From TrEMBL:
One of its GO terms (cellular component) is cytosol. The gene is dxs. PROSITE patterns: TRANSKETOLASE_1, TRANSKETOLASE_2. It catalyses: D-glyceraldehyde 3-phosphate + pyruvate + H(+) = 1-deoxy-D-xylulose 5-phosphate + CO2. Belongs to the transketolase family. DXPS subfamily. InterPro entries: Dxylulose-5-P_synthase (IPR005477), THDP-binding (IPR029061), Transketo_C/PFOR_II (IPR009014), Transketolase-like_Pyr-bd (IPR005475), Transketolase_BS (IPR020826), Transketolase_C (IPR033248), Transketolase_CS (IPR049557). Mg(2+) binds at D165, N195. The keyword Oxidoreductase does not apply. GO terms for biological process: isopentenyl diphosphate biosynthetic process, methylerythritol 4-phosphate pathway; terpenoid biosynthetic process; thiamine biosynthetic process. This is 1-deoxy-D-xylulose-5-phosphate synthase.
């Protein structure tokens, strides 16, 4: 990108960190960085790049986005005075450089690891961190409120909000800009980090407008004439910046008819080479002194200076989830069959059979697998940008138009579209299928990424059906069942990572799969989705201790399958197990159904306690949450009075006279002896 100025890119020279003083090691706090002489900054930028590649290649993480904001973050912290001035990062995945400059370099060996540095800003980690939410497009709203508070309290401090071009495709950003533009007194600097990409190239009119400002050939020609006019090798900084400013004004008026931000009444500075520290500091200084809200439009390159990221056409190494080879950028983990891949494969199969099936993604085609459909049927996939609310209602429009949309969105990101699913889809009885990947505890991305809310939040929607497949076969089957529903929303939810080992059913009653029978009817263990694996392992432990455990998979967790009621009535205890919050979750819903049916059984609902659970690996978090097979078995022993606490075993009330009629037996599609339960893949 620095070629934009004809200045050799600040691409990472073979920075031998030993050749020059280890500047990063000297930065124990932000003041240490601010004390560095300005001529040391290019060296520091190189060292930070080499440092990040070295560390993140071992831990996994957002290497691409962070290599794109090295100079940008340095310039911000040189011109502004955190934490008096508040620096906010939209999405926060690009805050590693900020963490290095605020004295946390030592923590990168434990990046995204349990009890280690988080991959996002964290108030517990630093006074320089404010917004912890990893959901995109929130920073400008935070900044709007924060700046208004500063004004109202008479505090002389700036708010600096760093927002990516991808995040700018989110509606909240425009709601915030509409408010910010109305206040000429807000000491607010919005730094648009424009690298032209979310994961893939950023879509939409906004993106093409941004790039027109950046890549217009006349712009380049005019810049060449400016460079000649200066008669020297391009020198960045104030003289060139001023000259360019005049040029840009001329060009913008000529070639960029509708200058988006200034038309909003916002002061616009840029575009600035986002890898030229001097130009950036000059632009930020200008913005700081402006006094009101200003947009500084920085042009950056995702993965800048690290060839494997720059060359990665998919997503510039946006977020390798685990360790990768620093030489090649290739992840080292052996590739197991993932839930995402199974979904993508079945989606393409269905789309070949049904031409009404179309796909929607919110700027995450590859992470959700929708890209497979796009390769096969490019005209039947719509990338709406980071705009999940729009995705849901646009899907409603597609359904109104006679299509059956499949909106593939990470569970946590659909939270923000609850109203759209409720009213725009469900109230209109439209067949839209939402496929929620990363449902349940994910791990390294921490609490705002945990897909633990969907079963509780969306189950309240009248007419909705929520499927939680337990393995590949049921994912394929339940996904197709959802596609056959055309009078309301359906959800298919599955966790991150490797797909669970097949768990064939012994029999199926009214849609509920029986996975294991005990020799007695002590416990009905109802396991949702991938937790069937944990449930089978727990059942084995309990069987060895003399319990009779029946393990069933409801397949659809909303509405609660009626067949579960008579099954519960035939057992002494009922236990539910779900990879979601307990409050309002599946267990709660089943307990209510049992109460309403007069079936009084001790019930234990095992799941995620609502809260902000820290980051770590999925396995570590599940252990912390007592959701491992051993913990499940212990909880059941405890319920049945034979746990480690050994309370008396209560006499059970008889099953009610009017026990619900025994559901008729239907042939389970996959009938076989239960397999020995495998441990859930990590
Ligand atoms: C609401 C929401 N949807 C999706 C995501 C997943 N996501 C994380 S980063 C990213 C791309 C962000 O692009 P941009 O804002 O341009 O930042 P860059 O990575 O280019 O620095 C996406 C889609 C998210 N964090 N939040
Ligand atoms: C920042 C963000 O929201 C995404 O990049 C997310 O971190 C990806 O998660 P996965 O690694 O599970 O795809
Ligand atoms: Mg971007």
């Amino acid at each position: 990108m620095s070629a934009w100025l004809g200045i050799d890119s600040l691409a990472m020279k073979p920075a031998d960190a030993t050749a020059t003083p280890d500047l990063i090691g000297k930065i124990k706090e932000l003041a240490d960085f601010k004390r560095l002489p300005v001529e040391a900054l290019p060296d520091l930028a190189d060292q930070i790049r080499a440092f990040l590649v070295s560390k993140v290649s071992r831990t996994g993480g957002h290497i691409g986005p962070n290599l794109g904001v090295v100079e940008l973050t340095m310039a911000i912290h040189r011109i502004f005075d955190s934490p008096t001035d508040r620096v906010i990062f939209d999405t926060g995945h690009q805050s590693y450089v900020h963490k290095v400059l605020t004295g946390r370099g030592d923590g990168f060996d434990q990046l995204r690891k349990r009890d280690g540095l988080t991959g996002y800003p964290s108030q517990a980690e630093s006074e320089h961190d404010f917004v912890e939410n990893s959901h995109a497009s929130t920073a400008l709203s935070y900044a709007d409120g924060l700046a208004k508070a500063h004004v109202l309290r008479g505090e002389k401090r700036h708010v600096v909000a760093v927002v990516g071009d991808g995040a700018l495709t989110g509606g909240m950003c425009w709601e915030a800009l509409n408010n910010i533009a109305a206040r000429k007194d807000l000491p607010l600097v919005i730094v648009v980090n424009d690298n032209g990409r979310s994961y893939a190239p950023t879509i939409g009119g906004l993106a093409s407008h941004l790039s027109s400002l950046r890549l217009n050939p006349s712009y380049e020609k005019m810049l060449d004439s400016v460079r000649e006019a200066l008669g020297r090798t391009p020198v960045v900084g104030p003289p060139l910046f001023e000259a360019m400013h005049a040029v840009k004004r001329g060009i913008k008026d000529a070639v960029a008819p509708q200058v988006m931000f200034e038309d909003l009444g916002l002061k616009y500075v840029g575009p600035v080479d986002g890898h030229d520290i001097d130009a950036l500091m000059s632009a930020l200084e200008k913005a700081k002194n402006f006094g009101g809200p200003v947009i500084v439009h920085a042009i950056t390159k995702k993965g800048n200076g690290y060839q494997p990221a720059e060359d990665d056409v998919d997503d510039c190494l946006h977020s390798p989830s685990s360790a990768f080879d620093p030489e090649t950028g290739k992840t080292l983990a052996k590739s197991a069959k993932k839930w995402t891949g199974v979904f993508a494969d079945e989606l393409v199969k269905v789309a070949e059979e049904r031409d009404d099936v179309v796909g929607i993604t919110a700027a995450m085609a590859i992470p959700t697998g929708i890209d497979k459909l796009a390769h096969r049927f490019p005209e039947r996939v719509f990338d709406v940008g980071i705009a999940e609310q729009h995705a849901a209602t646009s899907a409603a429009g597609l359904a109104l138009g006679g299509l059956h949309p499949v909106a593939a969105i990470y569970s946590t990101f659909l939270n923000r579209a609850f109203d759209q699913v409720l009213l725009d889809v469900a109230m209109h009885k439209l067949g839209v299928t939402f496929v929620l990947d990363r449902a349940g505890i994910t791990g390294p991305d921490g609490p705002s990424h945990y897909g633990i809310w969907d079963m509780a939040v969306f189950r309240v929607i009248p007419g909705i059906r929520i499927a939680a497949p337990r393995d590949e076969a049921t994912l394929r089957e339940e996904f197709r069942e959802c596609l056959d529903v055309n009078d309301g929303p359906t959800i298919v939810r599955f966790p991150t990572g490797a797909v669970a080992a097949d768990l064939p059913a012994i029999e199926r009653f009214d849609g509920v799969d029986v996975l294991a029978h005990g020799n007695r009817r002590d416990v009905l263990l109802v396991a949702c989705g991938a937790f069937a694996t944990n449930a089978m392992a727990a059942a084995e432990l309990l069987t060895e201790q003399g319990f009779g455990v029946t393990v069933v998979d409801p397949r659809f967790v909303a509405p609660v399958p009626a067949a579960l009621l008579p099954m519960a009535a035939e057992h002494r205890y009922v236990v539910t197990l779900e990879d979601g919050v307990r409050t309002g979750g599946f267990g709660d819903a089943l307990a209510k159904e049992l109460r309403d049916a007069g079936i009084d059984r001790p019930l234990r609902d095992l799941g995620v306690t609502p809260g902000w659970h820290p980051h770590g690996s999925r396995a570590e978090l599940l252990a912390d949450l007592d959701l491992t097979p051993e913990a499940v078995a212990e909880a059941i022993r405890d319920l049945a009075g034979r746990g480690s606490r050994q309370p008396e075993q209560p006499e059970l009330p008889l099953a009610p006279k009017q026990a619900a009629a025994k559901p008729e037996k239907t042939e389970a599609k996959t009938v076989a002896k239960p397999v020995k339960a495998a441990k859930e893949p990590a």
